[in-house]
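Posting here for the record, re: glutamine.
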Amino acid sequence: MMRVGLAMLQGARHEHEEAILSIAKDLQHEVEVVQLRKGDQLDASIHGLILPGGESTTMRIAARSEGLLDAIYNWMNDHPNRPVLGTCAGAILLSAPSNERAPYINVQISRNAWGRQRQSFEADIEVELERLNSSGVSVPRTPDVFGHTPLVVGDAENQNSGDAFPGVFIRAPRFESDGIGCEVIARLGEEIVGVRDGSKCAVTFHPELTNDRRFHAWLLNEIAALSPTD
Ligand code: GLN
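Prediction output follows.
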């Protein structure tokens, strides 16, 4: 049984739970979503984490009373290989943790850098993650011995046939293009909108508000690949 911790700090949480449970079914993983509200829930029985979007300042304040954010950061220090997906405000918490902690993702991020709430938008972005086939099983995008990228046969209706991913940007932050010290996994034109630093993935958009589950599948696949000592 995989246990995915979902930080119930504030913001878009329930959509993440739905997304994880639906892709878990497709991937045939047994998954329990643990709604994290108090620091003492963060223990070794949690295999991966989701830090949702919302309002990062409110999250930092909300987390103070139950010590949740500190416990999340301590858990990440104790289990550096366990995967974490941070979306939007969650990406801010990963790349700019307060309390004099070093960033968990080596990238510079600016809050609200697309403008105000009404400048929120939706746009197709390019994602470099494994695709899913019709049964939700991930298909590696790495070229085979002939240098061919494997075809995705029979895409499910709710998956995109190409790499285009519906990016939903809500008062989103922006990564500083000259401050990227990790792998780029999502782009909106020239703009970098998703990065991965080892076991941590941060995106400035909201994948949980779409039916494309590639990021949630990534989290579960990373958990499945953990070794007992991780
Ligand atoms: N503007 C928010 C912040 O700076 C992030 C927006 C979001 O998560 N949708 O915290």
